Amino acid sequence: MKFWSAISVCVGSALFSCAAYADAPMTQQQGEAILNELREIHQLLARQAAPAAPGTAAPARTLSVKAPAKHVLGKANAPITLVAFTDFQCPYCARFEATTFPELKKKYIDTGKMRYVLRDVPLDFHPFAINAAQSVRCAGDQSKYWEMKDLVFKNQSRIDTAALASYAQDLGLDAGQYQKCMADNKYLPEINADNQYAHSVGISGTPSFVVGRVVDGMVQGRLIVGAQGLSVFEHAIEEMLAKP
């Protein structure tokens, strides 16, 4: 029963994401991508629901990823780094931002135990994801990156161009500078590079996270997939903090 309830939640969230942008034209390729994602969710939940063999435990997947110097929240010398691969139109990402992230920030980022790094993975079937990512980065030019990030996720049902411009106005950004940044697609190459890098290390769904320590410029640690609850992150972080 829990298994099918989980599937219903995932499918419902995906369909909600589509409905929220029903006025945007959807290509056959985008439709197929959505169906593929739902199939992957079904397969993932089926594997998670399958009983483990007696005396065995599924090993945690480890990964090593780069953590850019940009878009970092927290102390530079924090012992743990959490790299988040996100999509601004992804309902699961918005759920993480609304429920889990505030607690992680209070417990680990604000106390100097962890840095938080954001990387963009705009999915092909989310028509406003790239523009939203550009908007957040353009706001960053005026020292409002994290504030714009929060506004976009909180208002995820309205992230068309006009809505994004209104959020920039709400933050008191210089309108001319913001509009030029958006019109020039200033950060599109960086966003595309983030997306390509994520796929190169095997990350194709959002949100995905890597939590670990920085070794030779790379964050080496545990991969966490999906908008998991606080306890999942706490367990991984505390385990990393306990290691010398």
From TrEMBL:
Q: Which GO terms describe its molecular function?
A: oxidoreductase activity
* Family per record: Belongs to the thioredoxin family. DsbA subfamily.
**Every Thioredoxin domain range:** 52-242
Known InterPro entries for this protein? Thioredoxin-like_fold, Thioredoxin-like_sf, Thioredoxin_domain
Can you tell which superkingdom this protein's organism belongs to? Answer: Bacteria
Offer one Pfam family short name for this entry.
Thioredoxin_4
State the protein's name: Thioredoxin domain-containing protein
Signal peptide location: 1-22
Keywords from the named record: Disulfide bond, Oxidoreductase, Redox-active center, Signal
| Entry-linked Gene3D superfamilies | 1.10.40.80, Glutaredoxin
Keyword flag Oxidoreductase? yes
